[in-house]
Specification:
By secondary structure, the chain is α/β, with parallel strands linked by helices. A five-stranded parallel sheet has the order 4-3-5-6-7, with helices on both faces. The chain has a five-stranded parallel sheet with strand order 9-8-10-11-12, sandwiched between helices. Strand 5, helix 5 and strand 6 form a beta-alpha-beta unit. Helix 2 packs antiparallel against helix 9, helix 9 packs parallel to helix 14 and helix 11 runs parallel beside helix 14. The radius of gyration is 20 Å and the shape is globular. The two termini are 31 Å apart. The chain binds 5-amino-5-deoxy-1-O-phosphono-D-mannitol. The site of 5-amino-5-deoxy-1-O-phosphono-D-mannitol has 17 residues, from helix 3 and helix 11. It comes from Fulvimarina manganoxydans. It catalyses: D-fructose 6-phosphate + L-glutamine = D-glucosamine 6-phosphate + L-glutamate. Homodimer.
């Protein structure tokens, strides 16, 4: 039931503050502020040196954020593949200690086949899944639930941000178990993660401004999405959301790759969406924004007050996001990208919840 919402996608975007809070509760004891694994699950991160992550679509982009989290907060090396490649890649897995799969449905054919491949190779497996009764949940050694509730819209929204929340909490937990994060820092991290629902609400409140930008986006045939560091996977996710539901051709790139090809596409007809909180990557991304502006590209910049005040270029459509510690930026910056795709699709008159050619659950290769 959509309730008072026009589409399931909109309802699911609005549910995010609540469901990311629930998901956090599975990984953090909210009374002590200590991280933990969900009830009944065990994984000893102190012994894990290398994780192989794989997933499809949005789950793959969540995994890419997960890789940044595990590497930065726990110093655990991560390999990452789309599941359709992992299952056939014949990668030597001797030094992998954990294979981690991310899936909303828990039924995606390639992800399931990758899980079976990893088990066949003798690896310990874990799955971040939203559907608790799914095949992937049944077959993985450890089940790490996202508590997003049923997701009906084909374009994943709340499952994605819940996956990010699970991965963030897990990476902090792994960092503690590996002796990389002190007990005091653990408390600071979990306090930060508890701010996510409020910040996501603040991001949702920007809907009106984003809708105005979506009206312009809907007149375009192409769009480029750029981000660096923690925001690189967000650029990929923003482009995927836009193409899935508005059918506008969109590509996501690591901002540093701009000069290696995509800059050739920039002219007055090419909108460039830049995800750039004022973090350690900001100055570098800002110089990419200048390169785009110098070639007449129209820039939509998602940043915070500090980023906006840096005055990188005039003539930029800036959406000012709340300020937050870097671990939260992927979760919170996902929201305006979802809203941009959603309102663009509405302008285009497409079927937002059931876009053409797509299925909610891809159970064949
Ligand atoms: O159920 P899963 O998370 O395994 O699904 C994976 C992809 O099919 C899915 O994320 C797809 O890319 C979505 N339509 C993205 O919005």
């Amino acid at each position: 039931d959509k309730g008072n919402y026009r589409h399931f996608m909109q309802k699911e975007i609005y549910e995010q503050p609540e469901v990311i809070g629930h998901t956090l509760g599975a990984f953090v004891d909210l009374t002590t502020g200590r991280t933990r694994l969900p009830v009944g699950q065990s994984l000893d991160f102190s012994k894990i040196r290398r994780i192989a992550l794989s997933a499809c679509g949005t789950g793959f982009y969540a995994s890419l954020v997960g890789r940044y989290y595990f590497e930065r907060y726990a110093r655990i090396a991560c390999d990452l593949d789309v599941a359709s490649e992992f299952r056939y890649r014949e990668s030597p897995l001797e030094d992998v200690d954990l294979a981690l799969f991310v899936s909303q449905s828990g039924e995606t054919a390639d992800t399931l086949a990758s899980l079976r491949h990893a088990k066949g190779e003798g690896l310990t497996t874990a799955a971040i899944v939203n559907v608790a009764e799914s095949t992937i949940a049944r077959e993985a050694d450890a089940v790490l639930p996202t508590l997003a509730g049923p997701e009906i819209g084909v374009a994943s929204t709340k499952a994605f941000t819940c996956q990010l929340m699970a991965l963030a909490a897990l990476a902090v937990h792994a960092g503690v178990e590996k002796g990389r994060i002190s007990a005091q820092d653990e408390l600071a991290f979990t306090r930060t993660l508890q701010e996510a629902p409020r910040l996501v609400n603040e991001a949702i409140a920007l809907e009106g401004q984003i809708e105005t930008l979506a009206r312009r986006m809907a007149t375009r045939n192409h769009a480029l999405f750029l981000g660096r560091g923690f925001s690189y996977p967000l650029a990929l996710e923003g482009a995927l959301k836009l193409k899935e539901i508005s059918y506008i051709h969109a590509e996501g790139y690591a901002a540093g790759e701009l000069k290696h090809g995509p800059i050739a596409l920039i002219d007055e007809t090419m909108p460039v969406v830049v995800v750039a909180p004022h973090d350690r990557s900001f100055e570098k991304t800002a110089s990419n924004v200048q390169e785009v502006a110098a070639r007449g590209g129209e820039i939509i910049l998602f940043t915070d007050a500090k980023g906006a005040a840096s005055g990188i270029v005039d003539n930029v459509h800036t959406i000012v996001m709340p300020e937050m510690p870097e671990i939260l930026t992927p979760i919170v910056y996902a929201v305006p990208l979802q809203l941009l795709a959603y309102h663009t699709a509405i302008q285009m008159g497409t079927d937002v919840d059931q876009p053409r050619n797509l299925a909610k659950s891809v159970t064949v290769e």
